Give the backbone structure.
Amino acid sequence: MASTASRLTVQDRKDLEKFTKYLVYKCIQVIVQGRLGEKMQTLSSPFSSSSDWFNLDINDIPEVLNETKKVFAGLVGGSLNVGQNICIEISLHTVEGESMILETWWMTLTDTIDPSARVSYTVYNRMGTLLKSLICATRVVPAYRLSRKQGSETFVVCYRIYTGEPQFHLGVGHQKTRVGSVPTPTGTIVLSVAYRTKMLMSPQTSLHREMPFELKDDHFMEGSPRKKQHEMPIPCMLKERHRRLSGDEGLIFAADPPDPCECVEHCCCGQNSFSNGDLANRVRYGAFAPHQEHPTWSEDDSSDDVPFMKLLVQGDRLNANDDQRSGSQPMTTESKPTAPNTNCDTTDDYVMIQLKTPFAGTEGASELNGFYRECQGAPPLSMLSDKSSVQDTLNCITQQLAEFETHAKDFDDFVNSIKVAADA
Amino acid sequence: MNARSQTFELSVEGRQVEEVVASIFHTLLFHRTFGKFHYKQEGSYSIGTVGMQDVDCDFVDTTYVICSEELDRHIKAEIMAFRDALRGGDGNGSGQISLEFFQRRRARWPFPAECIPWEVWTVKIECISLANEHERQLIREKVGEILAEKVLYVAEAMNRHQYTPKMPNQSEVDLVFDTSFPDVQPYLFKISHHTTGPQQTSVSNQMRKFLKDTLAL
């Protein structure tokens, strides 16, 4: 390989490095833009502009480009070397904090060379072909259909770019396939994808103890509650969380080269790994969804044990909404961690999850949804306005019972007196 | 030279035929299409830009990419003729449609240019009838999955970087590319269909074609 490489002119070598770099940039753009949840449309044009790399009209999203550049700069020598990988991970995050990785795309450079390939023509054209293959492939793997259904009310799709070994936390039965390759005089660029085939969230893998549900692929389902409004892709959640906590509002993307430990934490940790305040402050934006604050349930431990606790939380929040509308002081995050959610429209708070009802007709789920909506839409009870917790309420009931026990004799006497009166 | 030949076989519902064939042919054509060539001087040219547009299918769970509406109209006309022949009772519910890429070679006067295929893709379709909506939903998903496999197979085949005609100089561009489209420039291709029985491949048909063309003078 060294001898072949040495036959390349300085200009060829420079060109090859440049082409490879732009191929990586464009591949990442294609993958991320393919998960925006909207249809792509660019027009063919008889004349190309200088920004149209590989004779393809692939627009750059500046934030994604910056992120890519950052990761690329972290590579040894600032270019893709033999044995190195650049990976793009696409993951799904529900509004309830559950997440799963949907697919991992990775590009690598192998040491198989094609000494006869001309850099400025053959290699350039092959790169164009690889991009076309990638564009087609991104549309047919399962994550595409899911990404078209995302919305800030249900789930969002996030991306993460990293270097190093690709990680496949994709569940059983995941598929791996090679999308394409570009043989060059210095090595072969190979693009592959591994994708999840079982879209099932189970209690074992979720952060919350929830009923397992299947994200069904009703391709382009009409009338779903999602909003397909493209705002801005977002990077993976953990980084976003860090950003939120550090208060750096200006930075939207933050995906450093990966920290494997962090990834493990991200995929496998339970909710105990987070502090309550942490979770309450963690506001996620839809990867590819409207840039609108969505609600996060307050992470009270009791909510997992008490059925319909979330409805009580909802009641609290409705009250908070009323307070704000009536012109009271804006709440601060110190006094009330859920304050950022109070601006949300109450109808946005409800999470529409398509439940699989195995032994019921299709109306079953809608009825259940309807019931939940009614519960949610009911006016707040005044008894819910006080801030006593369930534990307090239970203690209170216990006290009352104890009190009644102590007065049992009085009650017996009263009943006896009635009986005596009746007998008389 | 023998043309490469690939065949896909699918069993689909009648109303899916058009979308199934379109999704495969557009994937192929997307790979086999360049931007428009503009020759500056002999041996030097610039190439236009290829755009892309997602098309959602109505009867199959899939989305495919087209690069030109003009090109789409052209191939849709051919596909619709196939669909009508298939569903119109002309055939026995099965048939095949081929997308053939070819190049022309100039022959000596007075013979016309010879068409030499270099890649042929054939889609064999068997139409099936379904009893109820449940079956319809199943096949809608199943055909979507099969098409995904086919598209990934096409991508793999295109990345083997096998023979394609050499980039021509200005005087020969029409021998390699179809220059009739205003926005894109695909390799010369033709679509043919057959609904009554197995069609002979274009490769084995070469001699007969040559004789036919000669006699057509």
In short: The radius of gyration of chain B is 19 Å. Residues 147 and 174 of chain B are 32 Å apart (CA to CA). Chain B has one domain: 4-195.
